[in-house]
Amino acid sequence: MEGTQRNWLPILFLAVASIIPVLRANIAEYDEVWRRREAEAYNRTLQSYEPDPLKVVMHFNKHVNRHIKESGGVDVMLMNSTRRHLGKKYRGPCKVTNPIDACWRCDPNWHLNRFKIVDCSLGFGSKATGGKGGRIYVVTDRSDDDILNPRPGTLRHAVIQKEPLWITFKRSMVITLQQELIMTSDKTIDGRGVKVQIAHGAGITIQYVKNIIIHNIKIHNIEEKTGGIIRDSTTHTGLRTQSDGDGISIFGSQDIWIDHVSMTRCADGLIDVIQGSTGITISNGHFTDHDHAMLFGANDKYTADEKMQITVAFNHFGKRMVQRMPRCRYGFFHIVNNDYTHWKMYAIGGSSHPTIISQGNRYRADHPYAKQVTKRECPESEWKHWTWVTDGDLFLNGAYFRPSGDQDWPRKHPEKMDDVKPASATLVSQMTKFAGRLDCKKKYPC
């Protein structure tokens, strides 16, 4: 028996050795389908990239300030604001506290026109239309027990279809994914009207695709999975290595909008955006109980992330958060009107000279030895040249932001100064009051 085992060892070694060098990004490099998707994805990154990101910043702030004006101004919004009670249901009349929500949330007939939210996005991910114009696919089955041949009615069956789909759910459900959920392009996952949780299994993978919207779901307790042969479209299955345990992993993809998600306790990151992904907005999220929250760019040597552009807006980073909210490499990042109430190490970090524009955020330091908002992972002689700007931020309980680089970036465009001005950080508690998954019911405002 022992001799038989020894005879198999060289064969096993050669088999494993032949696989290891050609695996990357959880896929087999020799897989021609994935290699073609990678090439197509990079071309889309070049197309989606905005050469003048200040235009997107200006457009965002213009809409926020218009919403404040239409709501009666800063003083009226402050007077009408109530203290956030996350975890407790709000039972008063519908209140829209930021321009994304004002676009749709107080309409009791939202369920009759689910596509409406496509018109509501702001920031770098505003081009995302998801499954608009496609048929509505209703998930009726919470199971995920066949990775190779997903059962019709399951979420996995929905996301691998070729055509645009707007995916909804017949009832409240907890979906435990046996392996990472690999999405195809032109899809919306819309959890409004029920309570949808992705939990206690693998997370969602958005890889080498375009045009994705994820809206109003809760993702928690995500685990690493071993990988294997997984169906990633109706016509292809491929070998995947072990998944990292990210809640949402965005890899080499474009035009993505993640809105009103609640996320906590993932094995790795809550949201990772890497490998030249661009055109992304993360808005109205509620994030708690996590160490490595958001990673934007995973490798200091991957210079294609220079094209990465992300808006992070109206989110609440809450209890027991530690770091990476976000942690950035290369790229351009507009961090605007978020509420940071907890961090144990730092809130915003980076390496490889990212441009970070922090506007109208509220930073409340809750840890006695972690007052600095920012962290650079290199010598000051290098990072002092990076453009990290704080503009209109509110710092509480000893919090402070170390700016660097070009602090006069808006003044280079004096004709745009009024539009570039961010909304007041004093309104952040109000603007993020309904962050996270909403308890929506049909025929009622959300």
Automatic annotation (TrEMBL):
<keyword id="KW-0106">Calcium</keyword>
<dbReference type="InterPro" id="IPR012334">
    <property type="entry name" value="Pectin_lyas_fold"/>
</dbReference>
<dbReference type="InterPro" id="IPR018082">
    <property type="entry name" value="AmbAllergen"/>
</dbReference>
<protein>
    <recommendedName>
        <fullName>Pectate lyase</fullName>
        <ecNumber>4.2.2.2</ecNumber>
    </recommendedName>
</protein>
<dbReference type="GO" id="GO:0030570">
    <property type="term" value="F:pectate lyase activity"/>
</dbReference>
<keyword id="KW-0325">Glycoprotein</keyword>
<comment type="similarity">
    <text>Belongs to the polysaccharide lyase 1 family.</text>
</comment>
<dbReference type="GO" id="GO:0046872">
    <property type="term" value="F:metal ion binding"/>
</dbReference>
<keyword id="KW-0479">Metal-binding</keyword>
<dbReference type="InterPro" id="IPR045032">
    <property type="entry name" value="PEL"/>
</dbReference>
<dbReference type="InterPro" id="IPR007524">
    <property type="entry name" value="Pec_lyase_N"/>
</dbReference>
<comment type="pathway">
    <text>Glycan metabolism; pectin degradation; 2-dehydro-3-deoxy-D-gluconate from pectin: step 2/5.</text>
</comment>
<keyword id="KW-0732">Signal</keyword>
<dbReference type="InterPro" id="IPR002022">
    <property type="entry name" value="Pec_lyase"/>
</dbReference>
<feature type="domain" description="Pectate lyase">
    <location>
        <begin position="172"/>
        <end position="369"/>
    </location>
</feature>
<dbReference type="Pfam" id="PF04431">
    <property type="entry name" value="Pec_lyase_N"/>
</dbReference>
<dbReference type="Pfam" id="PF00544">
    <property type="entry name" value="Pectate_lyase_4"/>
</dbReference>
<feature type="signal peptide">
    <location>
        <begin position="1"/>
        <end position="25"/>
    </location>
</feature>
<keyword id="KW-0456">Lyase</keyword>
<dbReference type="InterPro" id="IPR011050">
    <property type="entry name" value="Pectin_lyase_fold/virulence"/>
</dbReference>
